[in-house]
From TrEMBL:
<dbReference type="InterPro" id="IPR040442">
    <property type="entry name" value="Pyrv_kinase-like_dom_sf"/>
</dbReference>
<keyword id="KW-0479">Metal-binding</keyword>
<dbReference type="InterPro" id="IPR036637">
    <property type="entry name" value="Phosphohistidine_dom_sf"/>
</dbReference>
<dbReference type="InterPro" id="IPR008279">
    <property type="entry name" value="PEP-util_enz_mobile_dom"/>
</dbReference>
<dbReference type="Pfam" id="PF01326">
    <property type="entry name" value="PPDK_N"/>
</dbReference>
<feature type="active site" description="Tele-phosphohistidine intermediate">
    <location>
        <position position="456"/>
    </location>
</feature>
<protein>
    <recommendedName>
        <fullName>Pyruvate, phosphate dikinase</fullName>
        <ecNumber>2.7.9.1</ecNumber>
    </recommendedName>
</protein>
<feature type="binding site">
    <location>
        <position position="789"/>
    </location>
    <ligand>
        <name>substrate</name>
    </ligand>
</feature>
<dbReference type="GO" id="GO:0016301">
    <property type="term" value="F:kinase activity"/>
</dbReference>
<feature type="binding site">
    <location>
        <position position="639"/>
    </location>
    <ligand>
        <name>substrate</name>
    </ligand>
</feature>
<feature type="binding site">
    <location>
        <position position="788"/>
    </location>
    <ligand>
        <name>substrate</name>
    </ligand>
</feature>
<feature type="domain" description="PEP-utilising enzyme mobile">
    <location>
        <begin position="423"/>
        <end position="504"/>
    </location>
</feature>
<keyword id="KW-0067">ATP-binding</keyword>
<feature type="binding site">
    <location>
        <position position="790"/>
    </location>
    <ligand>
        <name>substrate</name>
    </ligand>
</feature>
<feature type="binding site">
    <location>
        <position position="584"/>
    </location>
    <ligand>
        <name>substrate</name>
    </ligand>
</feature>
<dbReference type="GO" id="GO:0050242">
    <property type="term" value="F:pyruvate, phosphate dikinase activity"/>
</dbReference>
<comment type="similarity">
    <text>Belongs to the PEP-utilizing enzyme family.</text>
</comment>
Length: 902
């Protein structure tokens, strides 16, 4: 019987490609791709994620892996004519981790693997540079000791520093050979002391140990935490890249650098990068010496620079996107060490997408798919003035966008107290708990040193639109002492700081805030925004405009706004809303009008009741006239009164206390009796929605009359009112039939009296599971459905949002019950299933049934894609989210066209 051929666990760079990212990881797949393109990549091979998964599951590497590594190593040695760790002219390699998604916590790269007490001499001779050889060796022992053997990095760094001091060297390049030789001895002693065994001299053992350390690093605490936060599966594993060394530390004609094909911070066209002479690996980004710009590099080494520029262009052409590149020059010869499609800021994303579109490198549809609603959302917040001087203290996770400055406080009560006297405060905690809620409400911003995007601080801050930076791990928060220490600097209660919730940056002092130019554009139009903008801002605004207009041309979903007033409606229209999907009428009963509701509730006779309603009627009508005028020609969905009546009455306890103190006014006792009668243990599930319409005589009738009369008035005035009436909280078709009988009669009467045809569609919200499940019946009486996904989420999960968000969500997210709050992003499996059911059933009864959504999910990027897929006609969200919904609706359409593969 033939032994089955073992799986291929090792691929030479020359045999892979960028499509193999699952198996080779991002770094390996792109190294292979560059090799395939014929770029100067030092040869090497990649050990697959499959080998890693096997190792992690079995606790040891698959048998065949050792053999396959040997074969790959031999091919590499033969190709270069050198042997790993040979005593003469040794081959050295780097061992680099590289998972499908780059993530913190994975093992850092070990360079110069293969050096030992003998090969270091061979290297010195071959390179004719002793200093270089010993510098490389000390780097190996240092990196290997730290990352593979787990020895604290300071042990080595402190010794390096001490040696520099003794030698009077200002930087590492000035260290003489003898000092480096000594340093190697010291480092080896540290290794022996720490691990109880000598630094491994066998090159192959170095390689194997480093490989296993990379595998193990998949499961470090930090990596696991990061994957949980970013929703990356735990079972992907990481690949290991073994790459022949090239040396940037071989003197003045060598160096190492990083570059981007465009500026990833602003999106400015043209290459951008840093180069450091006589250095290796991360030196260039470590800030140990001053780096050169690409222009300086061009003067220093015109040939290498010219080649780099050419390669940058090839990579950008090949990837059709901004590329992020690492390179090294060894004695005047350029080598490419890494590339990937680069991360970028929101502003850069928009600018680069339109630049590439104008260069005809990508299609308009692709440009649309290269930006996200979340990025557009970030651009809508006020920002710190980009031209202002700033002092960065540290960086945490961008948890809830916005730019906030204020005095540091360390407890919730202090935040409340200081805010009450008019101070802006930033609440700084290690992490927050439900007890901190009052302080979070009072603060302008929240800063924590622990926890990720799903921590309590992040979830709650996002829920209430508060700026938040969380998990800024460099902060040492001492609540008792009311101080926070960052990189040795102590900040006290009352010191002013600024936090940027879109980038996670934390700054010292107060930074000036500027309004978002994109909001200016949305509010006042392109011309107005361009008039005030500098060149860079103008390009950004133009990009947003063009991408949004393309989204508008492409999308199938209509976008409406939730707006209650004419002012909101006008604003929503400027933001691109194509109507109102939800006008709540409850605010129309607040303020001065609250007394009318009191009188309505207290009315003892039908006469009295009618009189109150007669007083309310003209007020309501005037509200609707204004609203319909602001949205003339576009649909306006008005929801009949939804919340329980006691929300309009005084607080029960306050009123009782007032009376008990003898401070009650006339009628207060009757009022208290009414308040008590209407009191409910669980108002969310009590007398509200259509139940009010059926049980409080005349209330809905008055509202319908006001709506129809307003429409008639607008029509007579030459307007084009398109009002729709929506009945909330229906659970049974019978409820809707009963209400409709009343509504239809009233409208018919008004049409006759005014001599106009109003054609007002009557529909219902679908916000109870029973409504979704009986949608076939409900559609008999409804001309449209609007999914009220907030209540539908509450009733499907049995969550009372106000109660659970602060008390249990952080824990639920941490435990993985869900990965995102179902109030933030639609729960596709549960709530989404009800929606799909209702869509199908409703359309079965009525093929032209109009379907929309008016919960906050209508402005959530992920949810918009779901609503597109579910076949809804429109989404409706707060005016501010309208541009985001327009963009995402466009992206959803492009995504579907492309078969979900863009
Ligand atoms: P990261 O994932 O942190 O980017 P890398 O594996 O890219 O880690 O390596 C860290 C540094 O070492 C980078 O500056 C990289 O360019 C450099 N480096 C990696 N492999 C080699 C090599 N074979 N020769 C020279 N430098 C290398
Ligand atoms: Mg790198
Ligand atoms: Mg509701």
């Amino acid at each position: 019987m033939a032994t089955p051929r073992p799986a291929q666990l090792v691929y030479d760079f020359a045999d892979g490609s960028r499509d193999m990212v699952d198996l080779l990881g991002g770094k390996g797949a792109n190294l292979a791709e560059m090799t395939r393109l014929g770029l100067p990549v030092p040869p090497g091979f990649t050990i697959t994620t499959e080998a890693c998964r096997h190792y992690l599951a079995q606790g040891e590497e698959p048998q065949s892996l050792r053999v396959q590594v040997t074969m790959a190593l031999r091919r590499l040695e033969d190709k270069l004519g050198r042997r790993l760790g040979d005593v003469q002219d040794p081959l050295l390699v780097s061992v680099r981790s590289g998972a499908k998604f780059s993530m913190p916590g994975m093992m850092e790269t070990v360079l110069n693997v293969g050096l030992n007490d003998y090969s270091v001499k061979g290297l010195a001779e071959a390179a004719n540079d002793e200093r270089f050889a010993w510098d490389s060796y000390r780097r190996l022992v240092q990196m290997f000791g730290k990352t593979v053997l787990g020895i604290p990095g300071e042990r080595f760094e402190d010794e390096l520093e001490a040696t520099k001091q003794r030698a009077g060297a200002a930087s590492d390049v000035e260290l003489p050979v003898d000092a480096l030789r000594e340093l190697v001895e010291t480092f080896k002693a540290i290794v022996a002391e720490h691990t109880g065994r000598e630094f491994p001299q066998d090159p192959r053992e170095q390689l194997d140990m480093a490989m296993r350390a990379v595998f193990d690093s998949w499961n470090t605490e930090r990596a696991r935490l990061y994957r949980r936060r970013e929703r990356i599966p735990h079972d992907l594993g990481t690949a290991v890249n073994v790459c022949a060394m090239v040396f940037g530390n071989m003197g003045e004609t060598s160096g190492t650098g990083v570059c981007f094909t465009r500026d990833p911070a602003t999106g400015k066209p043209g290459a951008y990068g840093d180069y450091l002479v006589n250095a290796q690996g991360e030196d260039v980004v470590a800030g140990i010496r001053n780096t050169l710009s690409l222009e300086d590099f061009a003067r220093l080494d015109p040939a290498s620079h010219a080649e780099l520029v050419q390669i940058m262009r090839r990579l950008e052409t090949h990837y059709r996107d901004l590329c992020d590149i690492e390179f090294t020059v060894e004695r005047g010869k350029l080598w490419m060490l890494q590339t990937r499609v680069g991360k970028r800021t929101a502003a850069a994303a928009f600018r680069i997408a339109t630049q590439l579109m104008d260069e005809r490198v990508i299609t308009p549809d692709e440009a649309l798919s290269r930006v996200t609603g979340a990025q557009l959302g970030q651009l809508l917040f006020p920002q710190f003035d980009p031209t202002a001087e700033r002092e960065l203290l540290t960086k945490g996770m961008a948890a809830s966008p916005g730019a906030a400055s204020g005095k540091l406080v360390f407890s919730s009560p202090t935040a409340v107290e200081w805010a009450a006297r008019g101070e802006q405060v930033i609440l700084c905690r290690r992490e927050t708990t439900p007890d901190d809620l009052p302080g979070m409400v009072a603060a302008t911003g929240v800063l924590t040193s622990r926890g990720g995007k799903t921590s309590h601080a992040a979830v709650v801050a996002r829920g209430m639109g508060r700026t938040c930076v969380c998990g800024a791990e460099e902060l040492d928060v001492d609540v008792a002492a009311r101080t926070v220490t960052v990189r040795g600097r102590v900040l006290r209660e009352g010191d002013v700081i600024s936090i940027d919730g879109a980038t996670g940056e934390v700054f010292a002092g107060q930074l000036p805030v500027v309004a978002s130019p994109v909001v200016n554009y949305l509010e006042n139009g392109l011309e107005a925004a361009l008039a005030e903008a500098d060149e860079e801002t103008a390009e950004l605004v133009r990009s947003v405009d063009r991408v949004l207009r393309h989204a508008d041309r492409t999308r199938r979903l209509r976008v409406r706004a939730n707006a209650d007033t004419a002012e909101d409606a006008a604003r929503a229209r400027r933001m691109g809303a194509e109507g109102i999907g939800l006008c709540r009428t409850e605010h129309m009963f607040l303020g001065d009008r609250r007394v009318l509701i009191e009188r309505l509730v207290l009315a003892e006779t039908a006469d009295e009741q009618e009189q109150v309603l007669a007083e309310l009627l003209p007020l309501q009508r005037a509200d609707f006239v204004e609203l319909l005028e602001a949205m003339d020609g576009l649909p306006v969905t008005i929801r009949l009164l939804d919340p329980p009546l006691h929300e309009f009455l005084p607080d029960r306890t306050a009123l009782a206390v007032k009376i008990a103190r003898g401070e009650g006014e006339e009628g207060d006792e009757r009022l208290l009796a009414a308040v008590e009668r209407l009191h409910e243990a669980n108002p969310m599930l009590g007398l509200r929605g259509v139940r009010l319409g059926l049980l409080v005589p005349g209330l809905y009738a008055m509202q319908v009359r006001a709506i129809a009369e307003a429409a008639a008035e607008r029509r007579t005035a030459g307007g084009d009112p398109r009002v729709e009436i929506m009945v909330p909280l229906v659970g049974s078709v019978m409820e809707l039939h009963l209400i409709r009988d009343e509504i239809d009669g009233i409208i018919a009467g008004i049409e006759e009296a005014a001599g106009v045809q109003l054609a007002i569609p009557i529909g219902t919200m679908i916000e109870l599971p029973r409504a979704a499940l009986t949608a076939r019946r409900i559609a008999e009486a409804a001309e449209f459905f609007s999914f009220g996904t907030n209540d539908l989420t509450q009733t499907t999960w049995g969550f009372s949002r106000d109660d659970v968000e602060a008390s249990i969500f952080a824990a639920y997210l941490e435990k993985g019950v869900f990965t995102v709050s179902p109030f933030e992003s639609l729960d596709r499996d549960g709530v989404g299933a009800l929606i799909r059911t209702a869509v199908a059933a409703g359309r079965e009864t009525r093929t032209d049934l109009k379907l929309g959504v008016c919960g906050e999910h209508g402005g959530d990027p992920d949810s918009v894609h779901f609503f597109h897929d579910a076949g809804l006609d429109y989404v409706s969200c707060s005016p501010f989210r309208v541009p985001v919904a327009r963009l995402e609706a466009g992206r959803a359409a492009v995504h579907t066209e492309a078969g979900g593969h863009l």
